[in-house]
Specification:
With 50 residues, the chain is mainly alpha-helical. It is 64% helix and 0% strand. It comes from Rhizobium helianthi.
């Protein structure tokens, strides 16, 4: 009974910081770009309040 409601709620929620970081890292096209992106994530690129 509640399963469809849970699915709707999951689809409407915003992605977490960890999900956004992983999505950003997964877009890297090579190892050098991945290292650069990892440094940006380590510096708090996604954790600052904008």
């Amino acid at each position: 009974m509640f399963k469809p409601l849970r699915n709707i709620a999951r689809s409407l929620r915003a992605p977490t910081v960890q999900e956004r970081e992983m999505a950003y890292l997964n877009e890297a096209s090579d190892a050098i770009e991945l290292e650069y992106r990892m440094r940006q994530v380590d510096r708090g690129m996604f954790r600052k309040g904008y």
